[in-house]
Specification:
The complex is a heterodimer.
Chain A lengths: L31 H6 L29 E9 L10 E6 L24 E5 L5 E7 L4 E3 L5 E3 L2 E6 L8 E6 L10 H4 L4 H5 L4 E2 L10 E4 L2 E2 L11
Parallel strand pairs in A: 1-10, 1-11
Antiparallel strand pairs in A: 1-4, 2-3, 2-7, 5-6, 7-8, 9-10
Chain B lengths: L32 E9 L9 E7 L2 E6 L5 E7 L4 E3 L2 E3 L2 E8 L6 E6 L4 H5 L18 E3 L2 E3 L2 E2 L12
The chains are: A mainly beta, B mainly beta.
Chain lengths: ~230, ~160
């Protein structure tokens, strides 16, 4: 079973902007250990404050929307925690609008919501964000195209190969089967890896729903036993 | 365990990923600092205004999003050649490219042009066919170095399978 079935290809014509942006020449294949053991970016210049992980408290009032807690662990290929690594998130507000000036979807901005957060994983590889559930929004990929609700994640990890930018989705979203970005991943099991799950354990009663999502970074796979 | 699959950075990262001083691994004006500028182009030769690039080398890290002209710039301490188990690595920076339309990041290297002898013996470039090596070597300009990224097309930059 090839790991590549779980990764999207560079060229996926249903996601139209891959057509002119995907490399067409053969990628250079280096010996595995080059990228798997080369150190990744040192992210220490990116400031992380404790309040950066609560996206509902970055303004004077509370943002509108369903308050949620998104948490999980960052693990390496052997299932070991990736400690003290940077996790960045960004998302649309509950109405499906990003604060980003490039977003011109005519849904309201929320003066109490930026939609960007950061945290460092703890010694067990855990991360946790408090936020509101993002809304779906239209995009112009094809006629009547809508993105399912998602949160963007950027994770560093220790190795060059562990650097990951991806998106987390919500279970049961009816837009999921229609989304070319998620469906660029050939294997259903790969797509399932981007699905969070509703979790009553991390739900805070009378306050916020919990969603759990674990992240597995590439690199440092189990070394074969000696002898 | 199966690694979590990648997804595009999308077009709407510009309010979240940039940070104060992100493009400067060292403050501009630092003795020995090197400025690298360039543009990102797609397969039609059009500028890519919604990419974000990261360079790193040792403890140095910088990030820059492209502007409307697809332009980016970095200020870094000039890297030195290193020798490891693979052989000699001429002075270079590692580069990652993220963009709308890239379902996975692209990885490559930006080489400094100063030492042709080190470039000729470089352990990484040895894996790259000769006619394409020039796509990885920055050129000297009055302002510092210039390095363009071609995602596609006749001068497509050499990228590494990751």
């Amino acid at each position: 079973m090839s790991e590549l079935e779980f990764e999207p290809p560079y060229l996926y014509p249903d996601y139209r902007s891959t057509e002119l942006r995907s490399p067409r020449r053969q990628l250079v294949k280096l010996p595995d250990h080059w990228f798997h053991e080369s150190r990744g970016p040192a992210f220490g210049r990116i400031a992380v404050k404790p309040e950066d992980s609560d996206l509902t408290k970055q303004h004077r009032g509370e943002p509108l929307g369903e308050r949620i807690i998104v948490s999980g662990r960052v693990l390496d290929g052997d299932g070991r925690p990736v400690r003290r690594t940077l996790v960045e998130v960004w998302q649309a507000n509950a109405a499906g609008r990003y604060l980003d000036p490039v977003d011109n979807h005519p849904a309201p901005l929320d003066p109490n919501f930026t939609g960007a957060g950061r945290c460092l994983t703890d010694d067990e590889g855990r991360y946790r964000f408090v936020t509101v559930k993002p809304g779906a929004y239209p995009w112009k990929n094809h006629a009547n195209a809508w993105r399912p609700a998602h949160i963007h994640f950027s994770v560093f990890g220790p190795w060059l190969s562990s650097r990951l930018v991806t998106q987390m989705y919500f279970p049961g979203d009816p837009l999921i089967p229609l989304d070319p970005i998620l469906n660029s991943i050939p294997d259903q099991r790969g797509r399932d890896l981007l699905m969070s799950r509703l979790d009553l354990e991390t739900t805070v009663p009378e306050w916020a729903l919990g969603f759990r999502w674990d992240i597995v970074l590439r690199g440092r796979d189990a070394t074969p036993a000696e002898g | 365990m199966v690694p979590t699959p990648s997804q595009t950075v999308g077009p709407f990262f510009g309010f979240a990923m940039p940070f104060a001083g992100d493009a400067e691994a060292v403050p501009p004006g630092t003795p020995g600092a090197l400025r690298i500028e360039g543009q990102v182009f797609d397969g039609s030769g059009a500028a890519v205004p919604d990419a974000i690039l990261e360079v790193f080398e040792g403890e140095q890290f910088a990030r820059c999003r492209t502007d409307e002209e697809g332009a980016f710039h970095f200020t870094v301490r000039r890297p030195a050649a290193v020798t490891d188990g693979e052989g000699i690595h001429a002075p270079h920076l590692n580069l990652l490219v993220f963009a709308r339309g890239l379902l996975r990041q692209l990885a490559t290297r930006i080489y400094l042009p100063a030492d042709p002898d080190a470039l000729a013996r470089d352990a990484f470039l040895a894996h790259v066919e000769q006619p394409r090596r020039h796509t990885l070597i920055a050129r000297e300009t009055a302002a510092g170095l210039h390095f363009d990224v071609h995602l596609q097309g006749p001068d497509e930059t050499v990228f590494v399978a990751i």
